[in-house]
């Protein structure tokens, strides 16, 4: 069955953001507008049965929460309902990421330990890179064990901005 996704765009300090929700207002995907190809690739993985995108009929709770987040209300995105495809392992990684509070960073090993898979650091990194819901599932809060910034699908400049916005201390 084809998944209907409702699309909105939010202007933000880190560029335009595409927000995709379903008919119930559940956040399904969030990606930087200039990374459209990445979003298409992730949608193919998460919705192999197909999807169609229509303009949202009005402003979603997800868009309002993200606007509040960028205005400084960092906790505004914490309870947004989300739904994704992905494997059970990926969903466990993404759930653990949502437990990392704004202003904190963790290493891949910390997430691996949090999901009781302490040797799965590389797999955690792969799951992190497949996250279809940037910012809300805060993959930007993972850094290298040494405290170095590691890759970020939206680019390291955005990752640095998001961490600074959140008052992010390093591990």
Structure write-up:
With 171 residues, the chain is of the alpha/beta class. The chain has 2 domains: 3-77, Double Stranded RNA Binding Domain, CATH 3.30.160; 88-165, Arc Repressor Mutant, subunit A (Orthogonal Bundle), CATH 1.10.10. The chain is 34% helix and 16% strand. It has 6 helices and 6 strands. It has helices at residues 36-46, 61-70, 88-98, 108-114, 121-129, 156-165, and strands spanning 3-10, 17-21, 27-32, 51-55, 106-107, 142-143. A 4-stranded mixed sheet has the order 3-2-1-4. A two-stranded parallel ribbon has the order 5-6. A hairpin with a 6-residue loop joins strand 1 (3-10) and strand 2. Helix 4 crosses helix 5. The longest helix has 11 residues, at 36-46. The protein starts with a strand and ends in a 6-residue tail after the last helix. The mean pLDDT is 93.
CATH 4th-level superfamily of the largest domain: Winged helix-like DNA-binding domain superfamily/Winged helix DNA-binding domain
Quickly count the helices.
6
Strand order of the largest sheet: 3-2-1-4
Element-by-element helix/strand order: EEEHEHHEHHEH
- How much strand? 15-25%
Overall structural domain count:
2
Please give the alpha-carbon distance between the first and last residues: 43 Å
Low-pLDDT parts are none
**CATH architecture field of the largest domain:** Orthogonal Bundle
As a percent range, the share of helical residues equals 25-40%
DSSP strand count: 6
Radius of gyration: 15 Å
Mean pLDDT: 93
Q: What is the name of the CATH topology of the largest domain? A: Arc Repressor Mutant, subunit A
The major β-sheet equals: 4 strands, mixed
Cα shape:
globular
Write down the CATH class of the largest domain: Mainly Alpha
Quickly give the structural class.
alpha/beta
